[in-house]
């Protein structure tokens, strides 16, 4: 949600609230398909396809795709403003793209109830928190105060069975 909101805010400030309707803006075919599906779903539900409704209905993969190499020029011109390091320095597109792709994979594993027990979850948690702080220090602070991962994830991981 933080990624989506930051991208939408920055592109709205730079282009306008209807930036998704700009001809030629999207460069990846699957993004066009996702956008068309969202518009069709809203129409089927009898809901006006406002920018806010469209933005909130687009998938995480849509937003992560905006960090792909096809959007390097957009990153250089505009999207670089979505995040900064803690020291205030700018990030490169790939500084966000690779970790976001890993988060997307982890999220999909959760969503499809696939095994993650052997993953280095503390490392993923640390990366997620770092990215959240880069995108929005306020969201990072909120997550740090309210999440329970540090208390619930055992040190050394989870052992499914003892080896003798």
Task: Explain the overall architecture.
- The structure is a single chain.
- The protein is mainly α and 164 residues long.
- It is built from 9 helices and no strands.
- The chain has helices at residues 2-14, 29-44, 51-57, 60-65, 72-77, 93-111, 121-135, 137-146, 149-152.
- The mean pLDDT is 90.
- Helix 6 (93-111) crosses helix 7 and helix 7 runs antiparallel to helix 8 (137-146).
- 59% of the residues lie in helices and 0% in strands.
- It has one domain.
- It is globular and about 50 Å long.
Search tags:
mainly alpha, 9 helices
Produce the secondary structure layout.
Blueprint: H1 2-14, H2 29-44, H3 51-57, H4 60-65, H5 72-77, H6 93-111, H7 121-135, H8 137-146, H9 149-152
Helix pairs in contact: 6-7, 7-8
Count of the domains: 1
Q: From the helix content, strand content and strand pairing, which structural class follows?
A: mainly alpha
- How would you spell out the order of helices and strands? HHHHHHHHH
In terms of per-residue confidence, which ranges show pLDDT below 50 for 5 or more consecutive residues?
A: none
Q: Mean pLDDT across all residues, rounded? A: 90
Report the C-alpha radius of gyration, rounded: 18 Å
- Counting H and I runs of at least 4 residues, what is the number of helices? 9
Helix percentage: 55-70%
Main sheet summary: none
What general form does the structure show? Answer: globular
Structure summary, number of beta strands = 0
Quote the beta fraction.
Answer: under 5%
Terminus-to-terminus distance: 45 Å
